[in-house]
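Suppose you are handed a protein chain with no further information: no name, no annotation, nothing but its sequence. What can you learn? This example shows the usual starting point.
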Amino acid sequence: MAIKPLADRVVAKKIEKQETTASGLYLGESGEKPSYAEVVAIGPDVKAVKKGDKILYDYSGTSVTIDGVEYLIIKEEGVLATV
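A reasonable first move is to predict its three-dimensional structure. Written in structure tokens, the prediction is:
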């Protein structure tokens, strides 16, 4: 099933917290939810991000699970930065 966001909404797939950095350093447990995601679809009014971008987001979105995959639907203003 494909998700087609409306207006200025972004659909992103949450990225799991990494246990090590690219150089092999171990990351400790912080207990925080992941705040990184990869954009999988954008609405027609979205201007700042594109499909495939890695983003930092605030927690104002809606989480949905479709076919066993957890997605986040947020307004474009909820995207804090691209990474």
